[in-house]
Design goal:
- By secondary structure, the protein is an alpha/beta fold.
- It has an 8-stranded mixed β-sheet with strand order 3-4-2-5-1-6-7-8, with helices on both faces.
- The radius of gyration is 17 Å and the shape is globular.
- The mean pLDDT is 95.
Length: 261
């Protein structure tokens, strides 16, 4: 049983905030920082592996593996030595309902399966989740060491944050092994007054939390079209500094050091 891997849940209260893009680039930033990384896609949109050159017609994933009682490692998509993704997989609606029913009745499904994976103990697991409350989000929050809430610098996103604060209190902050959470303001435009105002309001409302931006870059969409993260597609992009800063935040709070090679 592998009980030492560190798990980071990437969550959001609403869709369209670029959460899977953030998850993919954090995977790459942590990998480039010298750590083995596993991305786990709990979002039925099944998009995480597409950022690493995966095919959108790839059927296998943790949903199928669970329903067929197979080991998760058989469903892994290997990106590089030390970097892999477990896709959600493609399943029909009846199977999805059955899958979600199982998760609802097995609160430690995610934790148990991650602990059983034959991966290096220093592996950092990035868990991509669907937006809003769901059985997937509950699974992720129940086992995560850290949580990063992805939001936008707009009024609609700002209004939904109390909902996520409540969910984190319910599933995370009472656990002795929980190490903290923060807010990542995605697609931030420092040249727009509204972006500046919302970022400042978030910092004032959440004085005990880290609230830091990832700047907007139009190359993000281009990178996905080529099956790459922004870090790979535009290695000179200033936005990559934001992702590596967030990777450092993760590593500092997990209190881990680069493993020996």
């Amino acid at each position: 049983m592998n009980r030492t891997v560190k798990k980071v849940a990437i969550v959001s209260t609403k869709g369209g905030v670029g959460k899977s893009t953030v998850s993919a680039n954090l995977c790459m930033a942590l990998f480039r920082s010298g750590f083995p990384v596993l991305g786990v896609d709990l979002d039925p949109q099944n998009a995480l592996h597409l950022h690493f050159g995966g095919r959108n017609d790839r059927l296998d994933g943790i949903s199928r593996a669970t329903l067929e009682a197979r080991e998760w490692r058989d469903a892994a998509y290997q990106v590089d030595a030390g970097l892999a993704v477990l896709p959600y997989g493609l399943i029909n609606e009846n199977d999805r309902h059955e899958f979600e029913k199982r998760l609802t009745h097995d609160a430690h499904w995610l934790e148990r399966n991650l602990n059983q994976l034959p991966i290096a103990p220093e592996t950092i697991v990035i868990i991509d989740t669907p937006p809003g409350p769901s059985t997937y989000l509950q699974q992720a929050l129940t086992t995560a060491d850290l949580v990063i809430v992805v939001t936008l610098a707009d009024a609609a996103s700002y209004a939904t944050l109390p909902q996520m604060e409540k969910l984190i209190r319910n599933f995370c902050t009472s656990r002795d092994d929980f190490l903290g959470y923060s807010y990542l303001v995605n697609q931030y435009d420092p040249n727009k007054a509204l972006s500046q105002d919302v970022l400042q309001a978030l910092r004032e409302q959440l004085p005990d939390s880290t609230v830091e931006p990832v700047k907007f870059n139009q190359s993000v969409g281009e990178a996905l079209a080529y099956g790459k993260t922004l870090i790979e597609y535009r290695p000179d992009s200033i936005v990559n500094q934001d992702y590596f800063s967030w990777a450092k935040w993760i590593l500092d709070h997990l209190e881990v050091t680069v493993p020996d090679t």
